[in-house]
Design brief:
Bound molecules: zinc ion
Radius of gyration: 29 Å
Strand content: 15-25%
Largest sheet: 9 strands, mixed
Order of helices and strands: HEHEEEEEEEEHEEHEEEHHHHHHHHHHHH
Strand order of the largest sheet: 2-5-6-9-1-10-11-12-13
Distance between the termini: 88 Å
């Protein structure tokens, strides 16, 4: 039976009849220096298969040893999500074959996760949602396959495949929510806000760089619909690797419409994984998946159980940074922003960017202004997340520094942004290359002022008669001649000095 329908249902239409239920599974790659069960480096971007050893290649006889720092990071994440921390838990083998997994099993956790039964709270448009956390467990990452010769980079049509095991064995934490219900039309935004919140929270813990574009944070979105008023859950689809905040929101929105169309057509939803296509904004079928997929889990015999002492757990709890909600309240106080301003910044996904820009020396209002105007517009026009705008918070602060120093004006600043975003270099380099610096040198300005007075004798006469407001016309003329680069305040002084 097919899962597609000829007539897609609009999001609004779907919500009139169906109640969406979501589940989020987020993988976070930890930033430990070495892998989960061996001493190999975890540095990103090394030549293929240069960070491997008998353990992470699964060679016979190699014995794994658990990375204590990874356990510590897992406990920190669990505590930050208000989870219980297991006093004793084990790793398990998840058996399946895949070429990028050299052991033919993944060392994971099954019925004994290190952290379980937690919760966290997010906010969307001023409304709080409590998200229940089922578990956060430890596992190892797989390697990476590269399919060569096909048009799409997928295995279909490829002439051959290459595999890089550098990533095999890097520690991961998988964070799984309980079903998220009652979010209705806000579901796409709740999903996005949850992932954004998790990102902020993990970043605050310092245990991962959570860069979605590099894959150190990866999100699977489970979604099902049930007719309004029905309490049993519908069949779900699992959209894999949705790797930007914006895509999380779009994928939920798309799946709600797709499910509704299938159900309206009298068909059944197939329980399956789906691939998300960033370019077209749709999902396509992956592999069918039953609930009781038989991975033949069994406790890992080569690793001792993990039994963190209560003292250790409490010591880690005491070191936790302030939760994001408190952090945000403190930022609001520090920045003297109104609730509305904070909501605008949060809504644009620019909280950390503004914070980093302020940390780099810009005034809070200035930092907010640039991220919510020039940079938000750029992100919008290029259809990218605001985090992916090719300009750093430091560079934004540098532009503001040039403004504060009077070396450029507001209008020129916008040209500096254009230049930096176009890849022309740092703000200083753009100013130098495009010749954007404000001219406040009296000899250059004086000549232009003289020419403006000469060309506008009537205006000059008014100013000489005491009508200083008329100076604006002459300032405008000087500005025009100097292509916006004149120091307007100094021009005014020179005009008044000559005519006063
Ligand atoms: Zn290794």
């Amino acid at each position: 039976m097919t899962t597609t329908s000829a007539d897609p249902v609009t999001f609004e239409d779907a919500l009139e009849r169906y109640d969406p239920v979501m589940g989020m599974e987020v993988h976070v790659e930890l930033n430990t220096a070495s892998k989960m069960f061996c001493g190999c480096s975890t540095v990103f971007g090394a030549d293929p298969n240069t960070q491997v050893c008998p353990v992470c290649l699964g060679l016979p006889g190699a014995l794994p040893v658990v990375n204590a720092r990874a356990i510590e990071s897992a406990i920190k994440i669990g505590l930050a999500l208000n989870c219980s921390i297991a006093p004793w838990c084990r790793f398990a083998r998840k058996n399946y074959f895949y070429p990028d997994m050299p052991k033919n099993f993944q060392t994971s956790q099954y019925d004994e996760p290190i952290a379980y039964s937690g919760w966290t709270e997010i906010e969307v448009d001023g409304v709080s949602y409590r998200i229940e956390i089922e578990r956060a467990h430890m596992e190892e990452d797989t390697g990476k396959s590269l399919h060569v010769g096909g048009a799409t980079g997928r295995i279909h049509g490829a002439s051959h495949s290459l595999v890089d095991y550098n990533r095999a064995g890097i520690p991961l934490i998988e964070i799984v929510t309980k079903p998220i219900e009652g979010t209705g039309a806000k579901s796409p935004e709740v999903a996005r806000a949850y992932v954004a919140h998790l990102r902020e929270l993990v970043l605050g813990l310092g245990v991962s760089d959570v860069r979605m574009e590099q894959g150190s944070m990866r999100c699977d979105v489970n979604l099902s619909l049930r007719p309004i008023g029905v309490t049993t859950l519908g069949t779900r689809s699992e959209t894999k690797n949705v790797n930007s905040l914006r895509s999380v929101e779009r994928a939920v929105r798309h799946e709600i419409g797709r499910h509704a169309a299938v159900l309206d057509g009298g068909n059944r939803i197939v329980q399956e994984t789906r691939h998300w296509h960033e370019d077209t904004g749709v999902t396509t079928a992956g592999r069918e998946k039953s609930d009781a997929e038989d991975y033949r889990y069994f406790p890992e015999p080569d690793l001792v159980p993990v039994a963190p002492s209560r003292e250790w757990v409490e010591a880690l709890r005491a070191q936790l940074p302030e939760p994001p909600s408190l952090h945000r309240a403190r930022l609001q106080a520090d920045w003297a922003f109104s609730d509305l301003e904070m909501r605008d910044v949060a809504g644009a996904g620019a909280m950390n960017l503004v914070a980093e820009t302020v940390a780099a020396g810009a005034a809070p209002q200035a930092a907010k202004k640039w991220w919510l105007s020039e940079l938000a517009r750029y992100a919008n026009e290029h259809d990218i997340a605001i985090d992916d705008v090719p300009m750093s918070p430091e560079q934004v602060a540098q532009v503001q520094g040039l403004l504060d120093a009077g070396r450029i004006n507001d209008k020129l600043a916008r040209q500096v942004f254009d230049g930096v975003l176009a890849g022309e270099g740092t703000p200083e380099e753009v100013v130098a290359r495009r010749g954007l610096e404000v001219v406040s040198d009296d000899s250059a300005l004086g000549d232009a002022v003289d020419r403006a007075i000469e060309a506008n004798p009537d205006v000059a006469a008014k100013i000489a008669a005491g009508k200083h407001a008329a100076a604006g016309a002459l300032i405008g003329a000087v500005m025009k001649e100097m292509r916006g680069r004149a120091d307007a305040g100094r021009v005014r002084e020179l005009i008044l000095a000559r005519l006063g």
